[in-house]
Amino acid sequence: MATWDDVVTMASRLPEVEQSTWFRTPSLKVAGKGFARLREEAEGGLVLICDLDEKAALLASGDPAFYTTAHYDGYGAILVDLAKVDTGQLAELVEQAWRLKAPARARKALDRE
User: Fold this and answer.
1) Predicted local distance difference test score (pLDDT) of residue 41
2) Looking at residues 93-110, what average pLDDT do you find?
3) What pLDDT is attached to residue 40?
4) Where do runs of H (alpha helix) occur along 1-113?
């Protein structure tokens, strides 16, 4: 089980991450671009940016931690049930989401560490 605070902690080790809001909900951004957002509307969950292939693979896995809604059809984002997700996998997905939005200088800084 994970919480929003856990997601923030995972992301805080990544360069240039800032806590912000996105659609009036808590979010994480890099260089002003959102990569994670806590959904407080409808069924809740965490929105993480991903590519469409990754989204398809996560949904096909049958893992109940990952889902989508019609609103996100065709969009590179996966919804994550924080109460059901493995924290190790979540940390990997947070970094992947960050990498999709981070500028090259930030990605290089992380890779040098």
Assistant:
1) 72
2) 97
3) 81
4) 4-12, 52-60, 87-101, 104-112
DSSP character for 1? -
Q: Can you read off the two tokens belonging to residue 111?
A: 């890779």
Distance CA 39, CA 57 (A): 22
Residue given tokens 């808590």 in the structure block: 26
For range 60-71, the mean pLDDT: 95
- Asked if residues 36 and 11 have their Cβ atoms less than 8 Å apart, the reply is yes
Burial 62-95 (b: 16+ CB within 10 A, else e): eeebbbbeeeeeeeebbbbbbeebeeeebbebbb
pTM (two decimals): 0.94
CB atoms under 10 Å from CB of 98, counted, come to: 26
pLDDT of residue 99: 97
